[in-house]
Each structure stands twice: as C-alpha cells, then as structure tokens.
Amino acid sequence: MMSTPSKQAAISAYRNLLRTQKEVFGNDLRAIQAAKKETYARFMQFKDETNTDVLDEKLTLAKQVASLLRQNVVQGESKDGEHFSKSRTEGKDSFSHDTTLSFPLELNITKDTELGDNDTIKTSKNIHRKGKRRAAKAAACCGGH
To answer: Is the keyword 4Fe-4S in the record (predicted)?
Structure first.
C-alpha cells in the first residue's frame, strides 16, 4: 500500500527530529526520552489532519525545530557523567540540568552548532535598542506624528 506524499513527509520529518535529538543529546538518555516523548505527542495531535495547509505548516515547524536543536543546543557532560543542556534563543541563554553543575565539562559541539562571538551579539542588540529609543523619543516629542 502506497503512502500519500504528506504522510511520507510527516514520517521523514519525524525521523529527522529523532535523529537530531540523538545527535544533540548524545548519551543523555533522559533528554532523548523526553524529547522523543514530546515529539511523538506533537505528531500524534495532528495524525488525522487532512488540511494540507495545516500539515505543511506543521512539517515546516518540525524542520525548524530540528534546525534549532542542531544549531543552538549544546549538550555538556561533566566528568562524573551528569548531563546538562544549554540553548540560545533570541540572544538569551537557558540551561537545563538534573543536578548541580560540576566542572570541567565535555561539550558536544557538532559541525552544525552555530558558533559566534559576543561582539556580533552586542552589535545586533544595539541595533534593535537604538531603533526602539528613536521610536520612543519621536512618539514622546511629537505625539507620534
């Protein structure tokens, strides 16, 4: 029995997310299991969806999530085997770990991990801040006109 293209695309996106999770989270079985459970739940929400626009939107989201994981999440493992993850979204760092962080850490940085320096982040933040300040001053000065 042949699958419809959208079903094949969903299966492909699902498998891609599972592969990405294994690459990113390495040996952290708890993180892999949690990600797998969440992925399964999200895909099952739309298993009976027939609207191709909704399906395309969800498949695009799945690709974006896989890309975000590959580029912005770094898995770290301390010498005692405890794991933690660091992700970067919109210039803000967030950490997730099960126990107290101990150093030194071995980081799982892959070929897809987005590397940058603080100068580029500071520059991009300043651009956005300047624009907001100018808009606020113009609104205060002339009543927005």
So the answer is: no
Model pLDDT, residue 45? 94
Instruction: For residue 35, give the amino acid letter.
Output: A
**Whole-structure pTM over 0.70, yes or no?**
no
Tell me the sheet residues that pair with 92: 89
CB–CB of 67/83 below 8 Å? Answer: no
Closest CA to 26 of 80, 90, 69: 69
Q: pLDDT band at 2, cuts 50/70/90?
A: very low
Could you check whether the bond before residue 104 is cis, i.e. omega within 30 degrees of 0?
yes
User: Quick check: 113 and 71 in contact, CB under 8 A?
Assistant: yes
Whether 27 and 77 have beta carbons less than 8 Å apart is answered as yes
**Whether 46 contacts 52, CB under 8 Å:** no
Whether the Cβ atoms of residue 58 and residue 8 lie closer than 8 Å to each other: no
